[in-house]
Amino acid sequence: MIKPILSDSKSTPLHPHLNIVKDIQEPALHTQYRLRFLGRLHNKLYTISVKEVSYIVVEESTTLLITQNSKRIFIQLSLDQIEKQVHPKYYFRINRKVLLHINSIIELLVVSKSRIKVTLADKSQHLVSRAKNGEFKEWLDL
To answer: Going by C-beta distance under 8 Å and a sequence separation of 6 or more, which residues neighbour residue 90?
Structure first.
């Protein structure tokens, strides 16, 4: 026999696990992304806003932050660390060595069925890895 449900403000929820799921999801909505980087150029330290970053590249085991005005700043973080700290809406890692900002893209060239060449604001060109090709296209289409 089915009994009617009486509503009162002190009753327990029918699905107590729903609150747990909500608690798990909420921190993801409030993720704090990095606002700036501390880098070094010769003997000077610089703070660079993430808005000024064109892309980040690894060259000879050194992580370099390239600004919109083409300054090359050394930073003490790995590309893996940086990728986790920047907003995925604006930054995408196209291959093992390059993490770029959406606004730094000047041109996209289809090289083959599974390869895209990206030209950035400083005229540098980088290939999107085959593994990231589909994900990169989706990211561009957000």
So the answer is: 50, 101, 102, 103
Least confidently predicted of 4-8, 82-86, 91-95: 4-8
- Rounded to whole angstroms, the Cα distance separating 51 from 33 reads 12
Beta-strand relationship, 98-101 and 91-93: antiparallel
Q: Taking the mean position of all CA atoms in its chain, how far away is CA 71?
A: 21
- Are residues 125 and 107 in contact, defined by beta-carbon separation less than 8 angstroms? no
- pLDDT by residue (tens digit) across 38-47? 999 899 999 9
Please determine, for residue 112, whether its predicted confidence score (pLDDT) is greater than 60. yes
Answer yes or no: are the C-beta atoms of 119 and 110 closer than 8 Å: no
Topology (CATH level 3) of domain 36-140: OB fold (Dihydrolipoamide Acetyltransferase, E2P) (2.40.50)
User: The whole model's pTM is what?
Assistant: 0.75
Residue 96 CB burial class (10 angstroms; 0-12, 13-18, ≥19): exposed
